[in-house]
Design a protein that fits this description.
CATH topology: Porin
Radius of gyration: 26 Å
Shape: globular
Largest sheet: 16 strands, antiparallel, barrel
Number of helices: 4
Number of domains: 1
Strand content: over 45%
Structural class: mainly beta
Oligomer: single chain
Strand order of the largest sheet: 1-2-3-4-5-6-7-8-9-10-11-12-13-15-16-17
Distance between the termini: 33 Å
Length: 432
């Protein structure tokens, strides 16, 4: 209708120009014609934006703690939103072959059914392919797909498959948001990022207090898996990550963050649920983390501490002892943390470029306590479980949506029989 009205106005104006009988009238009509043409161009741009989801991403915008690209659908005027991120890296460890990996390409598709009902989805292609028989050569998954019902600043509801609100990296895992080439081990083996789950989540901000919260019922982690007693037991427990999954038991998750001081985020998360989706009925998992970020004048500090305990781990060990390949073990306690410090050496200069240098210390003990079916503590089955990795490096941001990374990681194992190693890595990442 706006286009029709504008066309009729233009036609009428041209007609008036034809009958204008003096120079002043013609000048005035020409000015009106120029204004109409400008309005028409603006209307074309507005109409295009409302139909096609190519709004630029705002790297500073975050909805419910998620990354900027994942939050894009919430800020665009378009019903359809298209965004994404990607990263590729090269690594040269001193104990093996060099690696080149088209690590991740992740498109986001969002759609606004209305201002209050939003669909948000993330598709992930890892390792440059999609071969379900060989995950080393690549695969494709839906990383999240949920409906968001925006009700009020203080109370909203997500339903479907979404990111579990635990830690720092799990919600904000886009490559421009962390400065190491690889994500911290703490948020890989202890907070099993990317940890998506199926359930119902409420969230919101509490007035002007600077507090925000998440609370939900989700699919329970399944600790009864083939990695019981080993480094990857918690990581392998993600029930909602891929395909059709067993959903016999549930867990509860909650998060509280404070952002009332400029540059500061401090908060914590709790998860509690059954420890198995299978035959183990009397075991439970409790996980928590404490996290913080502080940023001022080019300096940024980030830290996460997390711990997990499995009550009834001996029952998981009993079930696994009856497997074709007996394990007779389960992790009972695990913990770890990382601390990351960075400084942008270009922060005081009049430039849009950023050049942060950083250092990170990342300690994990994913098999802190391992028990057998009689609940007796036994030695870990994985000599490469407990480790500390110190990483130093530099990033370059030629654009706020593009990052080039270079780092040197030194990994030391607590078990003297495991060989320590160092890795130099380079990568690029982007969001759009």
């Amino acid at each position: 209708m706006k286009k029709i009205a504008l066309a009729l106005s233009t036609t009428a104006l041209l007609s008036n120009m034809a009958f204008a009988d003096d120079a002043s009238e013609i000048t005035a009509l020409k000015q009106q014609m120029a204004e109409l043409q400008a309005n028409q161009e603006a209307l074309i741009d507005e109409t295009s934006d409302s139909q096609v989801g190519f709004t630029s991403v705002d790297p500073q915008f975050s909805h419910n703690g998620m990354g900027a690209a994942a939050s894009k659908v919430y800020m665009t005027k378009s019903p359809l939103s298209i965004g994404g991120y990607g990263e590729m890296y090269f690594a040269a460890p001193d104990n093996g072959d060099n690696i080149a990996d088209v690590y991740r390409f992740v498109p986001y598709f969002g759609y606004k059914f209305s201002d209050n009902i939003i669909l948000n989805t993330e598709l992930e292609f890892e390792h440059g392919g999609a071969d379900p028989q060989n995950t080393d050569s690549g695969y494709a998954v839906i990383e999240f797909m949920y409906l968001d019902f925006l009700i009020d600043q203080a109370f909203n509801i997500q339903v479907g498959n979404f990111l579990t609100p635990v830690g720092l990296i799990n919600l904000r895992h886009e490559p421009v948001l962390f400065n190491t080439v690889q994500r911290p081990n703490t948020e890989k083996y202890l907070i099993p990022s990317t940890w998506n789950t199926n359930g119902v989540m409420t969230y919101g901000t509490i007035g002007d207090t600077g507090l925000s919260y998440n609370a939900g019922i989700v699919q329970a982690l399944d600790m009864d898996n083939s990695n019981a007693g080993k480094k990857k037991q918690i990581r392998s427990a993600r029930s909602g990550s891929v395909g059709k999954t067993t959903y016999n038991r549930v867990g509860a998750v909650g998060r509280l963050d404070y952002r009332g001081v400029t540059g500061l985020l401090i908060g914590g998360s709790l998860y509690y649920g059954d420890a198995s989706q299978g035959s183990v009925a009397d075991a439970s998992t409790f996980m928590y983390d404490i996290h913080g970020v502080y940023e001022i004048a080019g300096f940024k500090a980030k830290a996460v501490y997390t711990a997990t305990s499995i009550n009834g781990a001996d029952k998981i060990a009993t079930v696994n002892a009856g497997a074709t390949t007996p394990i007779d073990a389960s992790v009972s306690e695990a913990n770890g943390y990382f601390v990351n410090l960075e400084y942008d050496v270009l922060a005081s200069l009049a430039t849009t470029y950023k050049l942060p240098v950083f250092a990170q210390y990342d300690y994990i003990n994913p098999t802190g306590t391992v028990v057998d079916q009689n609940n007796n503590e036994i030695a870990t089955l994985d000599t490469k479980a407990e480790s500390a990795t110190t990483t130093v490096g530099i990033n370059f941001f030629p654009h706020e949506q593009v990052v080039l990374k270079l780092d040197y990681a030194m990994t030391d194992y607590a078990d003297s029989s495991a060989e320590d190693y160092n890795t130099i890595s380079a990568s690029f990442g982007f969001i759009f």
